Amino acid sequence: MARVKRGTTARKRRKNVLSHTKGFKWGRKSKYRLAKDALIHAWQYAYRDRKAKKRTLRRQWELQVNAASRAAGVSYSRFIAGLKSQNIELDRKMLAKLANDKPELFLQVLSKTKKG
Predict the structure, then answer these.
(1) Least crowded by CB within 10 Å, which of 21, 78, 89, 107?
(2) Angle at alpha carbon of residue 73, lines to 107 and 115, rounded to 5°
(3) What are phi and psi of 3, to 5 degrees?
């Protein structure tokens, strides 16, 4: 059986790891052991924060809708309850966009919820 030399494979793997660490500081961009450890952490943070991003955006939309509805004299919880009772299916992202970009349209939606 022929002997298998592994240098090419190892070099390719190390080059791949180092190519992912461009822009890292200090030895973490050029030393394989440090780069590998830094990449493991970076990918864990990236995975975690992709989930957290969705939470923070929803919280931001809720704040914007709350501010706009309170300016019209209705609390956020009563506004959302009114939407549900009138079967108006607008999500918080769209409501926040309406509140910021088209306040007159947002007030129309809000007036429909007051009726219910």
Answers:
(1) 89
(2) 60
(3) -80, 135
Phi-psi region of 79 (alpha: psi -120 to 50; beta: other; left: phi over 0): alpha
And the tokens for 91? 């999500």
Q: Give the tokens for residue 26.
A: 């200090």
CATH 1.10.340.30 is right for the domain spanning 7-115: no
How confident is the prediction along the chain (116 residues), in pLDDT tens digits per residue? 899 899 999 999 999 999 999 999 999 999 999 999 999 999 999 999 999 999 999 999 999 999 999 999 999 999 999 999 999 999 999 999 999 999 999 999 999 998 75
Q: Are 29 and 22 a contacting pair, CB within 8 Å?
A: yes
Domain residue spans in the chain? 7-115
- Rounded to two decimals, the pTM is 0.78
